Amino acid sequence: MPIRTNRGRAAVYRRLWGFPLRSPRHLVATGIAVAVLITAIGIAVPQFLGNKGGDQGPAPVQIRDPASTRQSSAGPSSMPMSTRLTAPLVQPTSAAPNPDALNTAKVWAQAWVNHPAGITNAQWLDGLRPYTTEEFLPQMSTVDPANIPATRVTGDPVATTSYTSSLQAVVPTDGPKLSITVSQTPAGWRVSGYDQAS
User: Fold this and answer.
1) How do residues 54-98 score in pLDDT, each as one tens digit?
2) Which of 42, 112, 121, 179 is the most buried (most CB within 10 A)?
3) What is the dihedral of CA 144, 145, 147, 148, to 10 degrees?
4) CA 149 from centre of chain
5) Domain count across the chain
6) φ/ψ bin of 60: left (φ > 0), alpha (ψ from -120 to 50), beta (otherwise)
7) 12: CB partners within 8 A, 6+ apart
8) C-alpha to C-alpha distance for 138 and 90, rounded to whole angstroms
9) How far is residue 95's CA from residue 169's CA, in Å, rounded to a whole number?
């Protein structure tokens, strides 16, 4: 028998919406039915839309090179996008040891071993400042000159690696040998690092 009044329709709707709340059994049955319906929709919709690549996983990510994103006025390029470096990184050029760099290493080492009793760190750094890069001086400010075991340089520096813009040399002292890195700067050759040589 058809429902002819609004009051009758409201009663039917109340019974439908109230069904899950009548008992715990109705609530569980409604939850299961909704879960099955959502799963069926999730499976059926991609098939209706024709998604054939669902089993292949995510698409690979391409990294674009900014230089290759420029397009000519003729239209898009048919060349594939580059995802790796096509040229090797620039390597420093080997060169014969620069005499000025070796001299800087020797003079710096002489200033490094010059620490008479009672000298402060600031006084010691003043002796190193003309031969040291500005970036390396703050690291040198943490060195206590009283802890330096060497008191004199015992030989000439020997280059271990040499490039056009930097050099690493070993300077012998009456304490440990020093491995000194000298770099070319706008102000000339300056020491940019040192360590105890093995």
Assistant:
1) 455 555 555 555 544 444 444 555 666 666 666 666 677 888 889
2) 112
3) 140
4) 38
5) 2
6) beta
7) 3
8) 29
9) 14
| pTM score of the predicted model | 0.54
Is residue 184 within 8 Å of residue 115, measured between CB atoms?
no
Report the CATH number at residue 141: 3.10.450.540
| Domain limits for position 145 | 99-196
List CB contacts of 145: < 8 A, sequence separation 6 or more: 115, 119, 120, 121, 124
Whose tokens are 């020997």? That residue is 158
Residues 168, 105: Cα–Cα separation, whole Å: 9
Which are the contacts of 76, defined by CB distance < 8 A and separation ≥ 6? none
Give strand ranges (E) for the chain: 158-162, 166-171, 178-185, 188-196
Same domain, 109 and 44: no
Query: Could you tell me if residue 139 is inside a domain?
Result: yes
Regarding whether 179 and 106 lie in a shared domain, the answer is: yes
Q: Rg for the chain (alpha carbons), in Å?
A: 39
Residue type, 36: V
Q: Is residue 91 part of a domain?
A: no
Residue 112 has pLDDT above 90, yes or no: yes
- pLDDT tens track for 121-137: 999 999 999 999 999 99
Looking at this protein, which amino acid is placed at residue 94?
S
